[in-house]
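Page 47, continued from p. 46.
Same chain as before, 319 aa.
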Amino acid sequence: MNFNELADDPEDTQHSPAERAAAASRSTWVSVGVNLILTIAQITAGILAKSQGLVADGIHSLSDLVADFVVLFASHHSKKDADEDHPYGHQRFETAASLVLGVLLLAVGVGMLWSAFVKLENPETVQKVHVIALWVAGGALIAKELLFRYMLAVAKRVKSSMLVANAWHARSDAASSLVVGIGIIGNLAGYPILDPIAALIVGFMVARMGWGFGWDALHDLMDRSVNEQEVEAIRRTLLETPGVSGVHDVRTRKMGDMIVVDAHIEVDAAISVEAGHDIAVAARQRVLQRHRVLNLMTHVDPWRRPDLDHATPAAAPAR
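Result:
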């Protein structure tokens, strides 16, 4: 999964940064409640039922709790207005939060891998688990899948890559609970080694997802452009502005979930500077209204009718 989930509709006319922050806060507090209950239930049941896989899954849920508070912190700061030190606003707090989520997932995954390897090197220490572990794993699977679907729906509605990251963090727990459930079933069926194997698989899944989120966020912090579909939609909006004869050199860079755009627009070379400026202002307003663009910087180039460019030059006077 990547952030192209947000490219389903390249034009966003409804959601301001403040609305995204409010949506992030609501959905994240729901996640906090779910993860708090699951953390307590999974770790407690895992210890009592002697299931390493369930304990690992509970630690994963605990990492979700930490991640949720990172999201809340970022949402609070990203909605601050622009200031002298941050003339484009604070939207990149969201990108930084996505990077932290990725690093957190990667660290948790590596820790789970190490713990599972230790158990696999000493298979005689693996004990048979109690059936209660299976019920807890099944309940966690259902709760995490429902939480994922809820959070992803909110993220796509308000076009927040940070919420997409947190939603897929929840899906990683759902997938890990499924694997843990299978490992517990195998353990109960007489194959105790399947429980730490399940923990090993979960660790790999978590580490891989953490790497993906961290890598994407790092690219966004290095001014990665948005996808071509969204760039083309912005170019089309500029071209549809009355008075704009051509558009070229459209460049974009991510600013959190918003976009900063530079573009060259062509206007009739015969009109006044003031008229060209008015066209550029109108083009900028149309883009800001129709897309998730934080700022658009336009450069006005002169455009001449092709028939005038190729007109026959006047004959030189006779000497």
